[in-house]
Automatic annotation (TrEMBL):
One of its GO terms (molecular function) is acyltransferase activity, transferring groups other than amino-acyl groups. Residues 2-151 form the N-acetyltransferase domain. It comes from the Bacteria. Keywords: Acyltransferase, Transferase. It comes from Planomonospora parontospora. InterPro entries: Acyl_CoA_acyltransferase (IPR016181), Bact_Acetyltransf (IPR050832), GNAT_dom (IPR000182). This is GCN5 family acetyltransferase. Pfam families: Acetyltransf_10.
Length: 151
């Protein structure tokens, strides 16, 4: 049974381990081993836990997923939605996203972005009410798809 709760700063290292494992396939998909989630430090993750809303999914004592939300006025920026590769496809990502929507109840909108080749991510976000707002070409191999969910 997976439980979702707020992350603690001391869990930054474990969150980073799951994050790196989850983003390896994204790095391969876009041919870039230096994408920000892979080069972020445990200290940066700890600061994110302290300054924003970071939720973790636990299976027993193990962290198997995480998501971040940073609220500014009435908008929550969603970031780093990650699920450990060995438990992907079990609804953990969707459960984390839904829990973030509940946790940041004061937000009127949720914004996020993902890469244009990340079809699984795009499907997940659309299922949870996100709609594409714009595309931003970052390089020859990467276009960011910006999405928003209005309440």
């Amino acid at each position: 049974m997976t439980m979702i709760e707020r992350a603690e700063p001391a869990e930054a290292g474990e969150i980073l381990t799951v994050q790196r494992a989850a983003y390896v396939t994204e790095a391969q998909l876009y041919g870039d081993p230096f994408i920000p989630p892979l080069v972020e430090s445990a200290e940066q993750v700890r600061r994110a836990v302290e300054s924003g809303t970071v939720l973790v999914a636990r299976d027993g004592g193990r962290i198997v997923g995480a998501v971040r939300g940073q609220t500014s006025e009435t908008t929550c920026r969603v970031g780093r939605l990650v699920v450990a590769p060995d438990v992907q496809g079990r609804g953990i990502g969707g459960a984390l996203l839904a829990a973030l929507h509940e946790e940041v109840a004061e937000a009127l909108a949720f914004d996020l972005f993902t890469g244009h080749l990340s079809e699984g991510n795009l499907r997940l976000y659309r299922r949870h009410g996100y709609r594409e707002t714009r595309r931003e070409r970052m390089s020859d191999h990467l276009t960011l798809v910006h999405m928003r969910r209005l309440l």
